[in-house]
Design brief:
The chain has about 350 residues and is an alpha+beta fold. It folds into two domains: about 5-55 and about 180-355, DD-peptidase/beta-lactamase superfamily (Beta-lactamase); about 55-170, 3-Layer(aba) Sandwich (Beta-lactamase). The chain has 14 helices and ten strands. The protein has helices at about 5-15, 55, 60-70, 80, 90-95, 110, 120-130, 145-150, 150-160, 165-175, 215-220, 235-250, 260-265, 335-355, and strands at about 25-30, 35-40, 50, 180-185, 200, 205-210, 230, 300-305, 305-310, 315-325. The protein is globular, with a radius of gyration of 19 Å.
Length: about 350
């Protein structure tokens, strides 16, 4: 396959559909472990707010490591680590596959901003979470909620016996020591703000956010959380995808065994109950952000700001997409239509190239 032609054709298609969807977009594609596409269209930046990609990069990997070390198992409950947690039957696995059935969102930031330090904020968060009722029985359909991952903060801090920011440093040094993945702790970016893709003008913060996390609850928690907060480059996220590929296909050695990686990447909800592995999204037939051609065994995640990563082990295909689509307003949905089309164009181009 002529990679230059592949990239050129894909870029032209993206540029024709980009206006109104996002200020810019970056796309990387790896096929069979080889980079075959690395393009950018529109206005792009070195670093992006990865939003919910944080979930699979940080807390999911931390919990996989602890699972492998037999600190917890699939029957472990949140209350095993947080004894005063009110929902005594809620399992850690319920949080990972969103069958905990917390409400989709709660504006905790309105209360959290009253407290200055990160430890104080996390203490108040615990109190707020304790009073949030579950919307249904945990065995019914999954309900995607950031609250499911906020519950994991005290669980992780108990498992690792250190605060969340130190857990991140441990996971990063173990798995991603050379990457520029970072949280903007206390909402101060480590690099010049001009290098970060701006998200949107926040009405209550009164400014365009650039190098500060878009998610309000994460911002109010001091810039770090289990559901969002990481910033990174397209190379960072692409490398993380290769890290997952190495685990799942057994083509590289990491601290995570292939058997454990596959367990967490296996569909964990019954038919009709939700398209989730343990922490990872799986394609929803007819409505996947990975388009129409990724296999049912694919894993990945999306981010509210306009980011995504998908890996299909059957095709050995990895696609990373970064954008700041919320710069046009969080209600604008054009990018959500463009993203699956990008994945379709990629697979169709590969098929033409191999025919």
């Amino acid at each position: 396959m002529n990679h230059t032609v592949f990239e050129s054709n894909l870029l032209k298609k993206i540029e024709s559909r980009l206006p109104g969807a996002a200020p810019g977009v970056m796309v990387q594609v790896y096929h069979q472990g080889r980079k075959i596409c690395d393009i950018q269209a529109g206005s792009t930046f070195a670093y992006y707010d990865l939003a919910s990609l944080t979930k699979i990069i940080f807390p999911v990997q931390a919990l996989i490591l602890a699972f492998q070390n037999e600190v917890w198992n699939l029957n472990s409950k949140v209350a095993d680590f947080v004894p005063d947690f009110p929902h005594k039957d809620l399992k850690i696995a319920h949080c990972l596959n969103h069958s905990a059935l917390f409400p989709t969102h709660q504006p905790f930031f309105q209360e959290l901003i009253k407290y200055p330090s990160r430890p104080e904020k996390r203490k108040v968060l615990r109190q707020l979470l304790d009073h949030v009722p579950l919307v249904e029985d945990p065995e019914n359909k999954s309900n995607y909620s950031n609250l499911s991952f906020l519950v994991l903060i005290p669980v992780l801090e108990k498992i690792f016996d250190k605060p969340l920011e130190e857990i991140w440093e441990e996971i990063k040094s173990l798995f991603f020591p050379r990457l520029s993945l970072e949280f903007s702790l206390d909402n101060h970016p480590k690099s010049d703000p001009k290098h970060y893709a701006p998200t949107e003008k926040c009405p209550w913060r009164g400014r365009v956010l650039q190098g500060e996390v878009h998610d309000e609850n994460t911002w109010a928690l001091g810039g770090i959380s289990t559901h969002s907060g990481l910033f990174g480059s397209i190379d960072d996220v692409g490398w993380f995808g290769l890290f997952l590929r190495g685990q799942l296909l057994g083509v590289s050695k990491t601290a995570i065994k292939q058997k454990t990686a596959k367990l967490f990447a296996t569909r964990s909800r019954p038919p009709g109950g939700g398209d989730w592995a343990l922490g990872y999204m799986m394609p929803t037939e007819g409505a996947s952000s990975a388009g129409d051609y990724f296999s049912p065994f694919s894993i990945g995640h999306t981010g509210f700001t306009g980011t995504s990563l998908w890996f299909d082990p059957l095709q050995d295909l990895l696609v990373t997409v970064l954008s700041n689509r919320v710069a046009f307003g969080r209600e604008v949905q054009d990018f959500r239509k463009l993203r699956p089309q990008i994945h379709n164009w990629i697979v169709e181009g590969l098929r033409r190239g191999s025919s």
